[in-house]
Write a sequence for this structure.
């Protein structure tokens, strides 16, 4: 599985540590984020990841910024992207099981790295439940 990852200046450290964790677990990781802690505009990186998801260049994505909200808002403007913001392992499980999120968004300034790593592991190992959840996802309009 190929995972795209993007971040702004607030997510550089967590991004680097998650990339190492994911590669050690056997995932191919494509970096769409900044490697600098100098302030940047998060939409640039969110759009790059979303376009890779839309084109099928990556199977799933992970995005990090300070609160996660800017990334989530930007990512969800793209057709075929379902970005879910998670701040606990249980929310990470639910954004996959119930919302079939193909991009996980993490609030780097509000969770520990240990929590971020746990959320990623849970999200990657959780199957989509389908059923009533698929029906609800089908009700979300696309452009």
């Amino acid at each position: 599985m190929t995972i795209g990852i993007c971040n702004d200046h607030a997510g550089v450290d967590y991004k680097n540590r998650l990339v190492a964790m994911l590669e050690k677990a056997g995932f191919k990781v494509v970096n769409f984020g900044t490697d600098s802690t100098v302030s940047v505009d998060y939409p640039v990186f969110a759009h790059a990841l979303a376009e890779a998801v839309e084109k099928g260049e990556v199977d799933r994505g992970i995005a990090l910024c300070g609160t996660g909200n800017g990334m989530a808002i930007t990512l969800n403007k793209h057709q075929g992207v379902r970005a879910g913001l998670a701040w606990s392992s249980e929310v990470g499980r639910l954004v996959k099981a119930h919302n079939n999120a193909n991009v996980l968004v993490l609030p780097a300034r509000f969770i520990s790295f240990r929590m971020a790593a746990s959320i990623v592991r849970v999200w990657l190992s959780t199957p989509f439940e389908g059923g009533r959840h698929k029906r609800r996802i089908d009700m979300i309009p696309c452009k």
